[in-house]
Amino acid sequence: MTTSLTDDLLNQLQGQPLAQIGQQLGLSPSQASGAVSAALPLLLGALGRNAAQPQGAQALYGALERDHASLDIGSVLGSVMGGGGGGGGAGGQILGHIFGARQQGAAQGLGAATGLGSNQAGSLLQVLAPIVMAYLAKQVFSSGGNTLASQLPASPQSLEQALGQEQQTITQQGGIGGGLLGAVLDRDGDGDTDFSDLIGLAGSMMGGNQPRR
Length: 213
Prior knowledge:
single chain; mainly alpha
């Protein structure tokens, strides 16, 4: 049985990595855990949407191979925490590729869903973006792991398949991750993203505490 990319990466971030992210952003451990748990499905689901676009999987595969395949989560996290932007490009630049014109909406939606506010949520996404890319590259270009991406041959088609399944899983599971992904991607295409239903969804996950501003 395969493990979802979201769950596998979240497991790898438990402990010191999550503590470092929380300290960087001024969050308690429970706040950091809840916010990262909401942000990872958003990032991986958006990558799945991109990979399904014409030439999308090819472009993403090329970026992973060129800029992220030689990196590991620990070194990227150290670079991000040290202000280096996380190898392979600054977090903001990576977010621009992932979300395009939806980048601000992604931060607003995550902020509304978790209570962080858009500025803190945007900072969290910038921290996580290069980590997600390094993690995904490792899954794609390694073998024998417990995720679909690590079990398929390394190719743009396999990447599209693995991310497509991930996006489907996130959507089916619903909750804060699925709801946030659907709202940010704005399926009706009208450009008006409504986050009202997301506000406070992560209250219990965040331990009921308001984050420090």
